[in-house]
Design goal:
By secondary structure, this protein is an alpha/beta fold. It contains 16 helices and 14 strands. It has 2 domains: about 5-125, P-loop containing nucleotide triphosphate hydrolases (Rossmann fold, 3-Layer(aba) Sandwich), CATH 3.40.50.300; about 130-394, no CATH class. The chain has helices at about 5-15, 30-35, 50-55, 60-65, 80-90, 105-115, 130-135, 155-165, 170, 175-195, 200-210, 220-230, 230-245, 275-280, 295-310, 355-365; strands spanning about 20-25, 40-45, 70-75, 100, 120-125, 215-220, 250, 265-270, 320-325, 330-335, 340-345, 370-375, 380-385, 385-390. A 6-stranded mixed sheet has the order 9-10-11-12-14-13. Strands 2-3-4-1-5 form a 5-stranded parallel sheet, with helices on both faces. The protein has a 3-stranded antiparallel sheet with strand order 6-8-7. Helix 8 (about 155-165) packs across helix 14, helix 11 (about 200-210) packs across helix 12 and helix 12 crosses helix 13 (about 230-245). The chain is globular.
Length: about 400
């Protein structure tokens, strides 16, 4: 089993809170992690119809059967349980009584906020990060660029982008395209229909693929809706579904105004580049070297890896992008109090001078000097006062 960076954070929370919740996309390793960390707990899977029926029809009787702490897997399937868990934890006042997992962010967080506010620590577990796969320490986002990292053995950039980070692809050595095809179909049939009645799944699948073609771009909802043949209202609702099920993330613009008009729409990214490559129709890792979206896929990789590092540290993401109406753009701005740390992302494997142009412009605009560049190569050094870091750094 690959060691997950989130492990010590979850273990610590279980000594402080009566309920710990781990949410994330399907097949990201939530159940495996929780069963490993809490091997002495009882375990129940609420995806099973008979178990789910028991929990819905007799929640008090269902919970009373557990004489020790319990892991409730896919708990969002029975939201009624949350109201019955609350009086139990309030009466016992013991940490680590319940460990909850769920793959639908909206329903799970909504239920926790309504019934378990102040009683539950909630964490997000995304697919494996490159640092986890390479058995490297967790990236400290707030000290970005200040540590060194050795080149990981047996990991190659394009293969990593193509494969992505879903654990089954590493546990069972599966063919990425075959597994991701099944994953996509399962996601469409189960999660989307559970969240809301989409109606035409074929149109929704086309919508997802159109989103894939826009990864790394500023989200234009009207254009996306028009290309998908749906209304802007439906497009907005479907984007919310993709966010809630951890397929995509929306990177918000930072609103710091340096006497410029700012772009106010978010940028769209996929959490997993393997899924992104599958939806784009890429069937071979070698094709990435010449693919028209190579830069966008690499940018998606870098952004998602840094977001994973934030979630694995148990913190919310302090990431934004910055762009003005004249086209000046910083790919990532890390907010640390009053400080803004800019990060540029370039897919090229050779660093050339024009890669630093935007960071030089930012330096002149803001008067700050600290910055970083993530690129597709393997070396780490300082150039023009910029911390140049390789692709596997994030």
């Amino acid at each position: 089993m690959i060691t997950r960076h989130l492990s010590p954070v979850v273990q610590k929370a279980a000594t402080q809170y009566p309920v710990v919740a781990v949410t994330g996309p399907r097949q990201s390793g939530k159940t495996t992690l929780c069963c490993f960390l809490f091997s002495d707990y009882a375990y129940v899977n609420l995806e099973k119809p008979d178990v789910r029926q028991f929990a819905k029809e007799d929640p008090n009787g269902f919970l009373a059967q557990f004489k020790k702490p319990v892991i409730l897997d896919e708990v969002q399937r029975v939201p009624e349980l949350f109201s019955y868990i609350m009086p139990i934890v309030d009466e016992r006042r013991v940490p680590g009584q319940f460990v909850l997992t769920g793959s639908q962010n909206f329903h799970l967080i909504e239920s926790i906020s309504q019934s378990l506010a102040g009683r539950c620590a909630t964490f997000k577990l995304l697919p494996l990060s490159t640092r986890e796969i390479a058995n490297q320490p967790l990236l400290d986002v707030f000290r970005f660029g200040n540590d060194e990292i050795s080149s990981p053995e047996k990991l190659e950039l394009y293969q990593q982008l193509f494969k992505g980070g879903f654990p089954p692809l590493y546990d069972r050595n599966l063919v990425p395209t075959d597994w991701l095809a099944q994953y996509t179909q399962t996601y469409l049939e189960r999660d989307i229909r559970t969240l809301v009645n989409v109606g035409d799944l074929e149109t929704f699948e086309r919508f997802i693929r159109l989103c894939a073609g826009r990864s790394g771009q500023v989200l234009n909802m009207a254009s996306l809706a028009d290309d998908a043949g749906i209304s802007p209202v439906s497009a907005k609702r479907w984007i919310s579904l993709l966010v809630a099920s951890y397929s995509i993330l929306l990177l918000r613009p930072h609103m710091k105004n340096f006497n410029k008009r700012l772009i106010k729409s978010p940028k769209l990214y996929f959490y997993d580049t393997g899924l992104l490559c599958y939806l784009l129709g890429i069937r071979n890792a070698d094709d990435l070297a010449i693919h028209s979206m190579r830069g966008a896929i690499f940018e998606t990789y870098a952004v998602s890896e840094i977001v994973k590092a934030c979630f694995n540290a148990g913190t919310d993401s302090p990431l934004y992008y910055w762009r003005d109406s004249q086209g000046h753009e910083i790919d990532i701005v890390i907010e640390n109090g009053e400080k803004l740390f800019p990060v540029e992302i370039k897919s090229g494997q050779t660093v050339v001078s024009n890669m630093f142009d935007t960071l030089k412009w930012w330096r002149e605009l803001t008067g700050t000097t600290d910055s970083a560049l993530i690129y597709g190569g393997k070396e780490s050094y300082l150039r023009h006062g910029v911390k140049v870091r390789p692709w596997f750094y994030v």
